[in-house]
Amino acid sequence: QVQLVESGGGLVQAGGSLRLSCAASGRISSINAMGWYRQAPGKQRELVARITSDGNANYADSIKGRFTISRDNAKNTVYLQMNSLKPEDTAVYYCNALTKVLGGLRLADYWGQGTQVTVSS
Predict the structure, then answer these.
(1) Nearest to 12 by CA among 82, 59, 93, 114
(2) Could you give the CA distance from residue 87 to residue 118 in angstroms, rounded to a whole number?
(3) Cβ count near 72 (within 10 Å)
(4) Rounded to an integer, what distance in angstroms lies between the CA atom of residue 78 and that of residue 91?
(5) In terms of DSSP bridges, do strands 115-120 and 10-13 run parallel, antiparallel, or are they unpaired?
(6) Contact indicator for 120, 110 with CB cutoff of 8 Å
(7) Which residues of the chain fall short of a pLDDT of 70?
(8) Which of 63, 87, 65 is nearest to 13 (CA)?
(9) What is the distance between the alpha carbons of residues 50 and 60, in angstroms, rounded to a whole number?
(10) Is residue 89 a contact partner of residue 49, using CB atoms and an 8 Å limit?
(11) Residue 46: left if φ>0, alpha if ψ -120 to 50, beta else—which one?
């Protein structure tokens, strides 16, 4: 019903930058929030950043001051600008959208397929 298409992952050296993008499409009535989560080997999935449709953002403590989340509501797209990358940022990054589908009664979570970010030392 809702598809999330991600791009921008890859391999980068420590101190470098990447910009992740995620575009939502499908039978969307409204999007309450979009965000990014990540999961590293041997660790649980964690919230990286999340932004509501009116622009309120939350960040994980580990990335505050280095990452910035933004959105383009007209395109149903969320971005994650990642600067000063560290090896510990290496993970699969997943896009998430909390949405209501056309004709739907409830909000529901949708997830992208994930994109690999690898930071070398």
Answers:
(1) 82
(2) 7
(3) 11
(4) 19
(5) parallel
(6) no
(7) none
(8) 87
(9) 9
(10) no
(11) beta
**Residues 6+ away with beta carbon under 8 Å from 3:** 24, 25, 26, 110
C-alpha 31/C-alpha 15 separation (Å) is 33
For residue 112 the two structure tokens come to: 């992208």
Smallest CA-to-CA distance from 53 within 91, 24, 82, 10 is with: 24
- Please give the Cα distance from 49 to 55 (Å, whole number): 12
The candidate with the shortest Cα–Cα distance to 37, out of 29, 47, 52, 27, is 47
pLDDT value of position 46: 97
Structure tokens at 6: 């991600």
Yes or no: say if 29 and 101 are a contact pair by the CB < 8 Å rule.
yes
pLDDT at 73: 87
Residues 6+ apart with CB under 8 A from 64: none
- Where are any strands of DSSP class E within 1-121? 2-7, 10-13, 18-26, 28-39, 46-52, 57-59, 67-72, 77-82, 91-101, 108-111, 115-120
Identify whether the C-beta of residue 66 lies closer than 8 Å to the C-beta of residue 82: yes
